[in-house]
Amino acid sequence: MSTTAERPAAAFPADRDQVSDAVDAPLRADVSALGALLGRVLTEAGGLGLLDDVERLRGLAIAAYEGSSEGTAVDGAFEEAEALVESFSSERAEQVARAFTAYFHLVNLAEERHRIRVLRARAAAGAGANDDTLANAVARLTEEVGEREARRRLAELRFHPVFTAHPTEARRRAVASAIRRIADLLGLREQVAPGAIAPIELDRRLLEEIEVLWRTAPIRTTRPTPLDEVRTAMNIFDQTVFEVVPRVYRLLDDWLLGEDAGVGTAQAPSFVRFGSWIGGDRDGNPYVTADLTEEAAAIQAEHVLLGLERAANRIGRTLTHDAADTPPDDALLDLAERQSRLAPEVTSQIGIRAPHEPHRRVVLVIAARIAATRTGDTRLAYGAPEELLADLRVVQGSLRAAGALRSANGELQHLVWQVETFGFHLAELEVRQHSKVHRQALEEIRAGGELGETTLEVLEVFRTIKRLQQRYGVRAARRYIVSFTQSAEDLANVYALAAAAFPTPGEAPELDVIPLFETFADLDASTGILDGYLELELVQRRLAATGRKLEVMLGYSDSSKDVGPVSATLALHDAQARIADWATANGIVLTLFHGRGGALGRGGGPANRAVLAQPPGSVDGRFKVTEQGEVIFAHYADQAIAMRHLEQMASATLLASSPSNEERNRAAAADFADLGARLDEASRARFFELVKADGFAPWFAQVTPMEELGLLALGSRPARRGLSVESLEDLRAIPWVFSWTQARINLTGWFGLGSALAAVGDEDLLRDAYARWPLFASLIDNVEMSLAKTDVRLARRYLALGDRDDLAQLVLDELALTHEWVVRTGGRGGLLEGKPVLRRAVRLRSPYVDALSLLQLRALRSARADGKVEPADADHRLLLLTVNGVAAGLQNTG
Description:
By secondary structure, the protein is mostly helical. Among the domains are: 170 residues, no CATH class; 162 residues, no CATH class. It contains 40 helices and nine strands. The protein has a nine-stranded parallel beta sheet. Strand 8, helix 25 and strand 9 form a beta-alpha-beta unit. The chain is globular, with a radius of gyration of 28 Å.
């Protein structure tokens, strides 16, 4: 981070020969340039002294990392770095932490730009035979099942991401906005056309924005409200998702139509649907009320309707087709007449501007009606998105009849796809509540007497759902998820409460009540619970109305906290297989909803590979998954990356149920059933040895920042459901993962696997399973990534914060054993060997994360010595700054 030739820029160092050759030159150039600009900003803000301290710590961290073997040996450089951190004043420690955090934000942007360059290069070269595009997926499926069956499956394809608020998303919205502005400027760096921004002007603007990033307080002083979280998600919809979705469809449509692309009637289905828990998920979050849910839905509707209105106006202004050359058909004339009767003033004004352009007039009136829908003008408003779609298709039909095929199938088709995908609600707002809350509310209602505040709120939620369905359509809010579903009665209670909320029978909203099986015991009991669920009369009625469609949600977080990552992975796979068989036996069209997270300990890792590893029959062309906080930004903040993500996930969803993929998974599951049982038994025993040890919970709070994280304003939802740190039972799984990740131990991603692999001991068998069993390969690869981000030097120091040497040694022994056996199972010489891009990213980031971890350890040691961290003191501020930095550096934290 320097301004002179004598000072190396705070970037990927050029002298790191063992990794620098793997870094593409444009990426190196971007990181070096950004590092140098940050160095200038630091010098201007804090003088050369600040830059010197940052450079000294950076150099020592790099030397310590490179002087270790696989990052495990403690050497003089590491101890010197630790001493330097301890020597900083409180003010200097905060400044250095902020510098490294800002650096990570810039590196993330550089890597994002590089991903975009790679995607563009691939697109220019054409999709390869093994490329995971949707077009290749359709082609491969066609080879296996024939064109007719492949097209049928494509027509029923559904990828359904659900955005959720992330209680460990550490960035402020102001910081995220500054990052996006810098990203836009980085995009300008690649413009070489005449008139592009001059390099000196670009650097000036970059310096200005980097200064804003540096001077913007990176930490929140107050917790974000659920509405803050809603508005943050809206930025993603506005900037990328709304525009990207029709472009993804268009890529497929052009391939399907071939030479008729642009003139033929669209064949690509609108296969993406979005959901949101932000503003609807009230499980353990007292700040999510019925009023807030309604306001969240209104915010979403405002954004999507404004987007549709602008698109319709833009298209309408371009449809300047003269009636003489492009005559309207009878359907369009009829629509125009109906519009004139409905809104004579509007149609008259538009008619003056476009007297001989009937298609233009009709579409501009459509835009006016969308605006009326947004503002609540019931005289002109559309009653439902289906009415808008019908009008748009009339316009398309008239243009086609007049021979204006490209106008009918161009931007107008994009608008049709957007309405099909987003409706008037943008993302379906899903409600989630704990089964215990429902039981208590129903008991109170049946007991008679005055109802308590919680029960009144539960009932008001159903009235809110009804209003949302009436205002925006049933699709806007119909899914109701029951956390910790442990019986069919837990699901029946929702219908009973919905009926109790309305005085007249039959007034309740349309509901799809979704069981969420989270713990190991609940997963094991899932099909029995579903049997009881099917016996409910209301459920049978709903199934008849929906074509026997049923959704079941699986929780990755709590199952992993219950039995460890290995047993949870196997239990989830087994539960999916059993639920899929149950659905087939009962004639159910099943959608499994995967509550995955960004962290590897919560089901994270490459999601498209995970889709292909699912049991036969469990996907069947439908995949629904949560996407949280930092993962939302990683997948959707840039349009090119968002397109790639949507296409990858859709192609994997389509191919998961191909005969070849299902047969591969079926054969592997049978061949390695005994291996899975042995892995389960050994890993679970080892996990229980740790977490069921006397005093484990308070020790966990000592050796990680878990207790302090509860003081930090990271998200609107509390970190615990109410119990003290003496018990893990009520600790939310996300902060459980987050705490171990911040401590650089990543225990939730790997603990128990080493003992399990060693207990099997047959290296040939394990390598065979790695080659042929997709589930096992995905598990090993995810653990390998988790281990690569683990640092034993730092782990030792965090574990030393506690007073249980026995538990600390248990963790370190298992870490070493897991490292050894993961490498042996993969048949490699070291972690991430053969994965140069991933290895580069981890190895080049790790020293800088190490520096932040040392600063965090300083804050935690002080807190442990004082007995607590006060929200206003220097240790608290430093801890929060380092949480931000480590999250930015590791990228998948919780």
